[in-house]
Amino acid sequence: MTSLIVQDGLGSKQMVSNKTGITARCLIGIASIACLICINANFIYKSQFATKGADSKKADLSFESSIIQEGQAEGKHDYGEGRYLQQIESNAVEERKNAFICITGQLGRLELENKMQNIIKPLRQSGYHISVAIVMSKGKPNFTHSAAKEERYDHLRKAIEYLRSLPYVRVLNPAWTAYYPIKNPNPPAVYYVGLKKHDDGKLDEVFERAENHVRMFDSYQRCWDVERKDALTQYPGVEAPPPAHDVYIRIREDVGLTKPLNMTMVNQFRTFSQSKWNPKIMITSDCRTWGGINDRMAIISPAAAQEYFLNPFQALAVDPYRGFGKSGKNKIDWDKISNTEGLLKSLYEASDIHIIQSEYLRGVKRIIIKKEGNKLIDAFHHADNTAFCPDDTH
Predict the structure, then answer these.
(1) CA–CA separation, 58 vs 296, rounded Å?
(2) How many Cα atoms within 13 Å fall on the side-chain side of residue 19?
(3) Are 285 and 336 in contact (CB under 8 A)?
(4) Strand order in the sheet with 375-380
């Protein structure tokens, strides 16, 4: 019987999910993430934080925690019952703060200004070395509720040049042009038939949606290809180098944040990611989850990065029935999949990645161009005015 007691001094809450389906309300930060490693055991968890506000760049954090378990000797890495831990010990190197950002999608929808202001700039101000990959496919996307032509960049070169003009951004793109998307992805029937059960559209329309999902996941693995090429340059002579960055962020090309990225959350996430447990964890917004996880943006630990970027394509384009995780036996329950959000949640849990659906990553909204008088401006899509967050009252 698993029991979980969480006591905190701040009172903030978020959803924590793991492969066993257990959820808990925890405080964001190192202390709350720490409860993930003990999710399968009985323990008592206490933390005290003193902050100057969740979004403060100068948040003063103090950390006290005790995780009490009984039984086995310390040092094993199964995080099962019987582990005794007195306090989190971080192996983080303060000087090393490398962030990898991969922007995925279609060139015709690409927006960068919001991402620069609300993601790249806060990371830079917190001392991160920033590497960016822009993984864009060719093609003319169709836009709904658009008052003007959406394309901000008619060639990927212009977007790359914009980022390269920022002295604190290292652009990792291997090419100056967008790539051609997969022509006939051929998604598995078990997936698009599941989508059709919850979609009143015609089967060929649902099949086309499923094809686009395969293309989307192809962009994920292209992110990892870029990262691996960069890792080889950072670890010369190493055939299979470790992750080259400390924080991984993937964000969709047409979305931005309503306020700057919460760096208290990011810094604590990085610190715990570099702890001796080397945890496989990721953060997504707790809003617009549709029974799964919000797929617009994610923050991923180094230990989880490879599976985060590669496994979606493996599941939807290679073998939908293969096993995932350390055992290689965790499989997707396709009978319960009705959308990409649900697929990603099931897949990442099967991959032994602990998912944190956080209220501190809200306001991830689509950006469109609209007319304001005689001007064209970037604005958040009106359909995102309703956030669909856990505490919405409507």
Answers:
(1) 28
(2) 21
(3) no
(4) 255-257, 364-372, 375-380
pLDDT at res. 150? 75
Q: How far apart are CA 31 and CA 274, in angstroms?
A: 14
Residue 175: the pLDDT is: 87
The answer to whether residues 240 and 97 touch, using CB atoms and an 8 Å cutoff, is no
Handedness of CA 79, 286, 118, 115 (dihedral sign): positive
φ, ψ of residue 159 to 5 degrees: the values are: -65, -40
* pTM (predicted TM-score): 0.79
Domains of the chain by start residue, with CATH:
4-67 (no CATH), 98-361 (3.90.550)
Q: For residue 147, what pLDDT is reported?
A: 52
Locus of tokens 């000087």:
95
pLDDT at 148: 60
Indicate the DSSP class of residue 119: I
Which class for 23: exposed (0-12), middle (13-18), buried (19 or more C-beta within 10 A)?
Answer: middle
> Hey, what are 175's tokens?
């090419």
Could you give the CA distance from residue 302 to residue 57 in angstroms, rounded to a whole number? 24
